[in-house]
Design brief:
The complex is a heterodimer.
Chain A: E1 7-11, H1 15-27, E2 31-35, H2 38-47, E3 52-56, H3 64-72, E4 79-84, H4 88-96, E5 101-105, H5 109-128, E6 132-135, E7 138-141, E8 146-149, E9 152-154, H6 158-169, E10 174-176, H7 177-184, H8 193-207, E11 217-220, E12 224-227, H9 230-237
Helix pairs in contact in A: 2-3, 5-9, 6-8
Chain B: H1 2-36, H2 46-55, H3 58-75, H4 88-137, H5 141-156, E1 160-163, H6 180-190, E2 196-200, E3 206-211, E4 221-227, H7 234-254, H8 257-301, H9 303-307, H10 309-339, E5 348-350, H11 352-362, E6 371-376, E7 383-385, H12 387-403, E8 410-417, E9 421-428, H13 435-440, H14 461-471, E10 475-480, E11 487-494
Parallel strand pairs in B: 6-8
Antiparallel strand pairs in B: 1-4, 2-3, 3-4, 5-7, 8-9, 9-11, 10-11
Helix pairs in contact in B: 1-2, 1-3, 2-3, 2-4, 3-4, 4-5, 5-7, 8-10, 10-14, 11-12, 12-14
Classes of the chains: A alpha/beta, B alpha+beta.
């Protein structure tokens, strides 16, 4: 069965961080490769393509964003970035460069795993074409463009649906404001975050049980939005940092 | 020479005025004498003598006295209209008058001098008092230097530039453009090669450069612009300046300026050092903390630990405590950012309730012991702020509420609006605030006296929150009915309407 284990590549220069990540990932059923700098990470990823990359930003030989950029040259592997707080601009930049999600140091293992699984599922969905996403009472059929809450169909305007669709395609992972604005309104509106706020308000009114206290369409301040999957919701309830 | 000539001129002018006054007195008395039958009007002449003594000096007063004697002899003593005085007793009278007038003019003159001296002393005292007060409140060495510079400029009555004692050559007034020669002389004295020197700045001005005090280098080096002084006068001017500076240096010593200066330097250096230390230590602490916290969460998920309730709760303790430590470190980092004024908000349009929800989500574990109630108004206007900073401020307030109210009690978080502001508030039913505490809670390191022994904390939270909120154009207000009556802390943020709205196209 060992061949069936997904392979995670952990890139961090701190040995203690690598140790607990290895333990946590192995407990969760991953096989783990470690790299302590950028060039080692790139070599390892070439020799043995991983199913998941956990990438720290502060590496001794090159910037984490450079590793990401080079990796993205030939690989679509899900990448979760380890970030530090109060660097929202940096998080956004890494997500734009192809990072799938981030966790903020210090973080709990459950939170990291929830992000990682969400990203991996998205790649799996992209290859198998599984079109329906279920989050509690909410069901989104991406192929048929049908959304139901508790089985009752909910109608959207095209732009509202586009917003929901983009978030659902990345279910469990954060999607940046800039990405959403560009996809829905085009490049000239990259800074008009209030467009998103206004449409998100409408979406929440249609989907959330209590629109002022959303449980599904969450805001990541300074970064973007996250459509929460049941797994992530559980990780969050167990307490994220 | 020039001075003596000026003096003679002044005395001549004074004497002329004195004579005019005597003449005027004579006219008045003579006009009255006919109708009032006044005889021996010599006493009247004491008036011009007194006036001249007070206003014009001793010599004009004496001139007035002599003129008074002569004129009263001429007009008021028989034989009239002659300077000759016939009766011996009248002659004695005039002689007496002469003496009285002399004494009077002298008295008037010296009284005048005394008054002037007293006034000058009083001004010196008040200047000195203002100077010492300024020294006492000066926040930094540079401010003290500036105060000394102005004080010395005032005393010497010339343009002065003061330099610090050290090789760093900090000047009090950065703007002063000095010629290279003056700078060279200053450097020479700062290095201690000479104590005092005279230089020509090449632009026609002579500068005296010397240590402020001959005894110590603590007060720095002063460059005094003597103006265009002829070569033979330099020594004289220099002596005068030296005298003034000797007094000034004695004053500086008496005021213990050296210690004040050192204290100020020490303060700013320790402050810098402390902040650098906090910055690096915080980063160094966070990496191991990330390992500890991560490892604890892995442990609690491992089947062995998850099965054992005791071990599981221990892993929880490790996690909670490292989270707490992480928060403290974050506070230190934020405090460093605030005091270095490195808060640069990145504003965006944001839904006010998102800030509250995000804060609750982030502090879920910490708030688990309390009953968190949300009261969020629907359709609040969007606000244009740095949502991350405002959320951090809100988290500080929420943490305080949890810290100072009993476990199990409610904490009510609300988002409302008034005419011009969105108000995010946190209400608890805990310790409350006294009126005095209410005014002090925003101070850095403030901790309520009644909580110091029972609750841990750094006293940084609200100070940071205040800085973050005001950087976003908002304000924080705290209200409490008193001890044990609970507290409401609210963030007020102005709202506006976005200038462009998403188009309501055909698809809407």
């Amino acid at each position: 069965m060992s061949e069936a284990k997904p392979l995670a590549l952990v890139v961090d220069d701190e040995v203690q961080i690598r140790r607990f990540l290895r333990a946590g990932l192995e407990l969760d059923g991953f096989a783990v490769e470690e790299a302590e700098n950028g060039s080692e990470a790139l070599r390892s990823a070439t020799l043995q393509p991983p199913d998941l990359v956990i990438l720290d930003l502060g590496l001794p030989d090159m910037d984490g964003s450079e590793v990401l950029e080079r990796l993205r040259g030939w690989s679509t592997v899900p990448v979760i970035v380890l970030s530090v707080r109060s660097h929202e601009g940096e998080k956004v930049r890494l997500l734009e460069k192809g990072g799938d999600d981030y966790v903020v140091k210090p973080f709990g293992m459950a939170e990291l795993l929830a992000r990682a699984h969400a990203a991996m599922r998205r790649y799996a969905r992209a290859s198998t074409g599984e079109p329906v996403i279920n989050i509690g009472p909410l069901s989104i059929d991406l192929a048929a463009r049908i959304v139901t809450v508790h089985g009752a169909r909910v109608m959207f305007t095209p732009k509202e649906y586009r917003l929901l669709q983009l978030l659902a395609q990345h279910a469990g992972n954060v999607v940046t404001h800039q990405f959403l604005l560009k996809e829905i309104w085009g490049a000239p509106h990259l800074n008009d975050t209030h467009y998103l706020r206004i449409f998100m308000r409408k979406l929440r009114q249609k989907i959330e049980a209590n629109p002022t206290q959303p449980r599904i369409l969450l805001t990541e301040l300074g970064v973007g939005y996250r459509l929460v999957t049941p797994e992530a919701a559980a990780a969050s309830a167990s307490g994220r940092v | 020479m020039a001075i003596r000539f000026e003096r003679i001129q002044r005395e001549l002018r004074g004497s002329a005025i004195a004579l005019l006054m005597v003449a005027a007195t004579t006219l008045v008395v003579y006009a009255l004498a006919a109708s009032l039958e006044i005889r021996r009007g010599s006493a009247v002449y004491l008036l011009p003598v007194l006036l001249a003594g007070w206003h014009l000096g001793l010599i004009p007063a004496l001139v007035a006295a002599v003129a008074g004697v002569l004129l009263s002899g001429y007009f008021f003593f028989s034989p009239y209209y002659s300077f000759f005085v016939a009766r011996p007793n009248e002659f004695v009278t005039l002689l007496l008058f002469m003496v009285v007038a002399g004494v009077t003019s002298h008295l008037a003159n010296s009284m005048k001098q005394q008054t002037e001296l007293a006034r000058k002393r009083e001004k010196e005292m008040s200047d000195l008092y203002a100077f010492s007060r300024r020294l006492a409140v000066a926040p930094s060495a540079a401010d003290i230097h500036r105060a000394i510079e102005e004080h010395l400029a005032n005393l010497v009555q010339r343009k002065v530039v003061l330099f610090g004692a050290g090789p760093r050559r900090e000047t009090a007034s950065e703007a002063a453009p000095l010629s290279g020669r003056v700078h060279a002389a200053i450097a020479e004295i700062q290095e201690g090669r000479t104590a005092s020197t005279i230089v020509d700045d090449g632009a026609g001005d002579i500068w005296l450069v010397r240590r402020v005090s001959e005894k110590t280098a603590d007060f720095g080096v002063i460059a005094i612009d003597l103006g265009s002084v002829p070569a033979e006068k330099i020594e004289e001017v220099r002596q005068r300046v030296d005298e003034v500076l000797a007094d000034a240096a004695a004053t500086l010593e008496r005021l213990d300026v050296a210690r004040v200066l050192n204290d100020a330097k020490m303060r700013s250096e320790t402050e810098l050092l402390r902040e650098a230390l906090i910055g690096s230590v915080s980063h160094e602490l966070r990496t191991p903390l990330a390992s500890i916290l991560g490892a604890a969460t892995v442990l609690s998920q491992s089947p062995e630990v998850a099965r054992d309730e005791r071990l599981n709760s221990l892993a929880g303790v490790v996690r909670d405590e490292s989270e707490r430590l992480n928060n403290d470190i974050q506070n230190l980092l934020d405090a460093t950012r605030v005091s270095r004024q490195q808060i640069t908000p990145r504003a965006e349009w944001i839904e006010p309730q998102d800030i509250v929800n995000s804060a609750v989500e982030r502090r879920r574990r910490y708030l688990a012991a309390h009953q968190v109630l949300l009261d969020l108004e629907t359709n609040l206007p969007l606000i244009y702020v740095d949502a991350v900073l405002v959320e951090q401020a809100f988290v500080q307030i929420v943490d305080n509420a949890a810290k100072y109210s009993p476990a199990g009690s409610p904490i009510i978080l609300s988002a409302k609006r008034n005419a011009s502001h969105v108000v995010l508030s946190v209400r608890d039913v805990g310790a409350g605030l006294t009126a005095e505490e209410g005014t002090q809670i925003y101070e850095r390191f403030f901790r309520g006296k009644r909580h110091v022994a029972t609750t841990s904390g750094s006293g940084l939270g609200l100070w940071i929150a205040q800085a973050f909120v005001s950087a976003n154009g908002g304000k924080i207000e705290a209200e409490s009915a008193g001890i044990g009556q609970g507290t409401t802390v609210a963030i007020h943020l102005p709202f506006a309407t976005p200038t462009n709205q998403p188009e309501v196209g055909p698809d809407e």
